[in-house]
Structure formats: structure tokens, C-alpha cells
Specification:
Elements lengths: L4 E4 L5 H12 L6 H8 L4 E7 L5 E10 L2 E9 L8 H15 L4 E7 L3 H9 L3 E6 L10 E5 L6 H13 L1
Parallel strand pairs: 4-5
Antiparallel strand pairs: 1-2, 2-3, 3-4, 5-7, 6-7
Length: 166
Amino acid sequence: MQEFVIRQMEHKDIDDILQIEELSYGAHHWSRDSFLIELNNKISSYKCILNSENKCVGYMGIWKIIDEAHVTNLSIHPDWRNKKLAQRLLLASLDECYREKIKYITLEVRVSNQKAINLYEKFGFKSLGLRKKYYQDNNEDALIMWSENIFDKKYKELYDRIKRDL
């Protein structure tokens, strides 16, 4: 069975991350400079998931603003998808939110990205509107999604169930 480790993103991970970005998003992906800026951003937290060869095969970023977190990105290398790695990254970020007393999590996701929408819905996120023509590469709309208060008993039960089942 493949073992994975989740840790904070480091500068040495950026080459792996840029490969994932290009495979996931084509020409319209974040640049090296964007990730370097994020690694130095005091409100951001980026995590990598490493395979047994210590290669970053997925990553997730959040911005932490008072009692809210905003998911900036979450992506898994295509060769490593469908192994619940995105769920593991999301759980790790939720753990951080619990530690730092962050109550709500929000994000935007392409309306066409049904797999991502399904993941977020599994974690209790609900759609609360659209950002029209949000994505500049094709003017696709973004679905705005929010979690419930993660400290609410019902949400904590959902979190515990997902963690146990993983």
C-alpha cells in the first residue's frame, strides 16, 4: 500500500507543482513567481502531499483571514488522481483551521468541474452564488461555495466520519 505524507510546501516543491499545474490547467496556470509570492505571504498556507519517492503529487493552498479560510487552489497530478489525495489535503487544511479557530471556508470552482464540486459537497460545502465570467482563459463562471461553521456539532460529525472512512 502506497504511503503518503502531507507537509507544508517548500521552495524545492515548486518544480513538481508547476508540472501538476501545467497538466491540470494547460497554459492558464499559476507561475513560479505566484507560488514564490504565496510561500512568503503571511496569510497563506500551502500543503503538499508526497508519495513514497518524496515527490509532490498534489497540493492545496488557503488564505487565512480572521475566522475565514479561502481555498486558493487544490490539484492532484493526473497520474495520482482517484486515490483520495484531495480528501487528505482538505482534511489537513481543516485540521489547521480547527487549530487556528477558523470557522468558515470558502472557495470558487469552475461550474464545469463536477468532480471538484462533488468533493466539496462531500465536505459539506454549499453553493451560494456565481461569479460570472470569473475564469479569464474562457470566461467560465465560478461557483461560490461555503462551508458551514466547522465548529458546529453537525459539521464536526461529518468531518469525523470522512476522516474515519479515509
